[in-house]
Amino acid sequence: MTILNLDDSKKVTDYQQFVRENPRGQVTQDPLWGELKSNWGHIYVYHETDGKIDAAMSILTVEAVPGKLLAYVGRGPVADVEDIDLIKSMINEALTALPDNVFLVRMDPEVSYSDALNQKYIDAGFKTRNKQVEHMHGNIQPRKNVVLYYDGRGEGAKPITNEEELMLHFKPKVRNDIRRAFRDGVTVTSGDSEEDIRALFDTYVSMAKSHGITHRPIDYFLRMQKLWAGTGLFRVYLAHYENQVIASGLGFSYGDEIWYMYAGSYREFGKHNAPAAIQYEMLKWGLELGKVEYDFGGIGEFDNSDGLYKFKHEFAYHDPHAEYIGELDWVIDESGYQEYLKQFE
């Protein structure tokens, strides 16, 4: 078990290659994510077998209660989470390098929930936060996601190997919406330039305002673009209508997955169904790369009372519900932990 030396360019490259190419790799476990989160501290732990990295734990730290730090392993670690001895040894190694005022190490790997796995972590001394958390914002990351599986799992599903099979995977309404968008003259481009990011941001802000929700600042997205441009791991999709961008989507390609992360649209152009066209083109990206999963992101509930579910599920109605293990908390300071949990009540 070793702490990554960020001055060792070869080992940093090896670490990045592992979290990018491992089937369960995640953008939030890439050291670039630590650079994006410029106001967070960061350390990286890895495990090797025969000189090759086979487990990685990227940990970001931030003051989450006065004077005390949360150490967060976002959507990680990239490791065999069934091997709890390995996971605990990585945490213990991290604690040798983390500040003394860390009160909690929190992991939330993208691994399916099971009673057995949940109990294994409890028996090992972790506190788990999953089924007892009723609201999607009660966890840092939503625990319930809509995922399209290109390999054809789910009742009535078949493997998706071409664009025709992809289109047939959707509900008829979605197919009609996509065709309507293109008939209306909507076109979709993709790129990773600053211009692309600025166009996305304008639609993102418009959508946030129409829904009365907060949004990230433009500087966050500009940093993201500078860090990932040219890597092939990051794309911005823009829907154009009559020489104007009317909708957008942003995604990352890591491991076996495309993760659809941000989007935006102008409500006044809603009749042209541009968001459906964006999703279609992003799903084609995953198909071209031979991905196994396309993660539409989090939802509140697996039913049509949830507007996010209603839109996303129409693309993936064959697919099984993705319900993850949730938060696996290694508590160091119980009083700090209880203070921290109050914000999620």
Automatic annotation (TrEMBL):
Pfam families: FemAB
GO molecular function: aminoacyltransferase activity
GO biological process, one term: peptidoglycan biosynthetic process
EC number of this enzyme: 2.3.2.16
InterPro entries: Acyl_CoA_acyltransferase, FEMABX, PG_Glycine_Bridge_Synth
SUPFAM superfamilies: Acyl-CoA N-acyltransferases (Nat) (SSF55729)
UniProt key word Kinase: no
UniProt keyword list: Acyltransferase, Cell shape, Cell wall biogenesis/degradation, Peptidoglycan synthesis, Transferase
Keyword Nuclease: no
Enzyme class, first EC level, given as a word: transferase
Family per record: Belongs to the FemABX family.
Full protein name: Lipid II:glycine glycyltransferase
Protein's gene: femX
